[in-house]
């Protein structure tokens, strides 16, 4: 049984499916489970957000608001949940965070990037499976 889960998200449909599957997976044990949603903001998105919102503090608040409904949904199922925001290349930041904290498993959606980005850069999920020391579940 997984009690402490790190759930990588980027707001995509694939990561939303991963969230739903994780909630289903832990529902029989929900009182004993904590889910930490983790969102890593890459440099390009960070710059875009700052230009859009005017400053980094407002951009951070808006990023947290983006996942507020998701956190509330998870909590409404009786599961403890929180959001962690990181800055940097998503695969590297999530791997570093996961390997320096004690999680029973990490869950990630199978795709966030488009096919060309995946071909050139590799998929985040593939990198997480390869480098995270805890079990990693990839949801299609």
TrEMBL record:
Chain ranges of the UspA domain: 1-140
Domain of life (superkingdom): Bacteria
Pfam families cross-referenced by the UniProt entry: Usp
SUPFAM superfamilies, sorted: Adenine nucleotide alpha hydrolases-like
Family label: Belongs to the universal stress protein A family.
Protein name: Universal stress protein
Gene source species: Halobacillus amylolyticus
